[in-house]
Amino acid sequence: MNEKRGFSFMENVSFAPYTPPTDLPVLKVSANAALRIRRARVDDIPRLYHLINYYAARGDMLPKTLDLLYNRVREFHVAEAGGEVVGCAALKITWHDLAEIVSVVIHPDFQGRGLGRHLIEPLFDEARDLGIPTLFVLTLQVGFFSRLGFREVPRLRLPHKIWQDCSMCFKRDRCDEIAMVRDM
Ligand SMILES: CC(C)(COP(=O)(O)OP(=O)(O)OC[C@H]1O[C@@H](n2cnc3c(N)ncnc32)[C@H](O)[C@@H]1OP(=O)(O)O)[C@@H](O)C(=O)NCCC(=O)NCCS
User: Fold this and answer.
1) What is the whole-number distance in angstroms between the Cα of residue 123 and the centre of ligand 1?
2) What pLDDT digit, counting tens, does each position of 2-16 carry?
């Protein structure tokens, strides 16, 4: 019997230890390229993985695995500059009355130009269409989310269920993120 039967697709897979990205993606696009927001596609995922895990390694957000990003590609919107993906954000449904804004990143070359706002505002419409009355975010970017209508709340006001993701974070019980909510 062929022992490899059914597993031949694994032959070229190497299981090197994971090292988070230490540099941001180098963009080929010019600073004045045309900008647009669109839903993510599967071929965007390697770029999203790079951007998100770069900031996650600095403690700014939770890391994401490739398989999780592929599983959740339909939750993501991306910002594109001249055809290149320079940012992302996603809406993650928690419960019947609550959803979270996650994985919000804009490449530094394109920060401060309204792209973060333009990525997140369509997620508000999506939440309303889904009938979700409240959004929350856990963040160190209080100023940015305040401008988008979020207000600070005590973290323990949020349901216990939301802390499941903390097992993926190196901060664990030393979390320094601020909880913020926004009514839809
Ligand atoms: C936070 C981040 C997504 C903001 O994106 P951005 O495209 O630079 O933000 P925008 O230009 O759309 O700013 C929207 C508004 O927020 C304000 N703002 C943005 N960053 C801010 C900050 N750090 N402090 C205070 N206000 C801020 C802007 O002045 C703007 O206000 P206005 O629309 O009323 O004029 C971006 O800085 C980033 O990717 N940071 C690193 C990753 C990160 O920390 N993500 C958050 C994880 S929860």
Assistant:
1) 16
2) 455 566 666 666 667
149, part of any domain: yes
pLDDT at 163 over 80: no
Report DSSP letters for 48-109, one per residue: HHHHHHHHHHTTSS----HHHHHHTGGGEEEEEETTEEEEEEEEEEEETTEEEEEEEEE-GG
Ligand 1 atom closest to 137 (CA): 48
Q: Domain containing 137: what range?
A: 34-183
Q: Is residue 119 part of a domain?
A: yes
Map residue 142 onto helix, strand or coil.
Answer: helix
Which residue's CA is the closest to the ligand 1 atom numbered 48? 139
Is residue 94 pLDDT above 50, yes or no?
yes
- Atom of ligand 1 minimally distant from the CA of 103: 47
> pTM of the predicted model, to two decimals?
0.89
Examine residue 14 and state whether it is found in any structural domain, yes or no: no
Please report whether residue 38 resides in a domain.
Answer: yes
104 lines ligand 1 (CB under 6 A): yes
Domains of the chain: total: 1
Instruction: Output the residue whose Cα is nearest ligand 1's atom 24.
Output: 143
Q: Is the CB of 58 under 6 A from ligand 1?
A: no
Residue 100 sits in a domain whose CATH number is: 3.40.630.30
